[in-house]
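Figure-free illustration: sequence to structure, shown twice.
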Amino acid sequence: MTQIREFEVTLSDGATLCCTATGQGIPVLWISGLSGVGDFWDTICPSLDGVMSIAFDQRGLRQSKRGSYDVSIDRLALDAMAILDHLALDKAHVVGHSTGGCIAMSMALTAPERISSLVLSGSWAGPNIYMSALFDWRLKLLETDARLYGTIVPMLSSTPKWLIDNPDLLTAPTEPWSIEQVTVVKERIDALMVFDRRKDIAELAQPCLVIGARDDVVVPVFLQEELAEQIPDANSYFFEHGGHFFPKSQNSQFISLMANWFISHRSS
């Protein structure tokens, strides 16, 4: 049976991060997207042999406390680094999906010596007219009807086949969102809309794998191709299908990619 350990990291502003460590072996920190929850990786982490997978709920989400600091991508990167400090890890591989990829890039640019390798999954380096329009629309929907927002996101992010296999995602939640929940998501979107590391990513020196899906309408594949082109010596892999949530809809293939990557960079 895969070993799972729960722990909590307390930050200097009173925020707390609820974390899990799954398995044993080389350390890998998994950072999820705008939802910011660790269980995004639940179908992936237990399947990787020889890996200690660390996942967490980001500040203000689920049982993790919000704290008092302003939220930015750089702040969320410092939060993630605090988990490595808590575990006394000098280095770790970091996998970030979507918003998590932005956080991972900030970690790698701020403290490159702490990052063994970087996997950027469905992510991007900076704003463009498409992403600005999409997030502006999502903000308006969030402020108008947060429960509808919560249903539209998987519709945007998933393939129809995967949604048919997971029909609970097609039903709007009955519980209303609290003001605090809306505020946390809104400030995360605001942080994303000003994130821009296009001028910096050529400095990334770690082994890097860029993964995308050609039918992703949340983060279009051309933004992921841009990452692969601008990061020195980056490897890349693009699924033909899978939508934005391709780690879930292409689960077995994604796990295989990760297993091969960590085997190839075990000594990084």
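We now fold a second protein in the same way, so the two outputs can be compared directly.
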Amino acid sequence: MRKFVIALASVIVASTASVAADDPVAVRKALMQSNGASAGVAGAMLKGELAYNPATAKAAIAAINATASAFGDFFPEGSDMDANTTASPKIWEDMAGFKEKLGGLQASAAAAVAASGKDGPADLDAFKAAMGPI
């Protein structure tokens, strides 16, 4: 499972980089897919559906942090009018509020990375504590 998460994140990052300049909507969707995959793995471990593994936990946290760090760059003015977007119009109506909430996610994700240490959260309780604010 850990190898799958790492491979998925690598593919998404590579594909995201190739379309970033031309299609912010596609990038947003790719980042959300990556975030969903990471959250799915994290959720499965938190629910006991997947055996806890510190390296997998660290990979999930790192991927969520990477998404949080990059996500705000892909909401340029006018991209709300793209026919392919499913992003809420409220983002552009209150961009300052959106950026504030995104800043909170970024801070929580960065704190989770820091709490993960070199080898990932030591146990499931440490992982729960790191993921809770996210």
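Summary for the second example: The radius of gyration is 15 Å.
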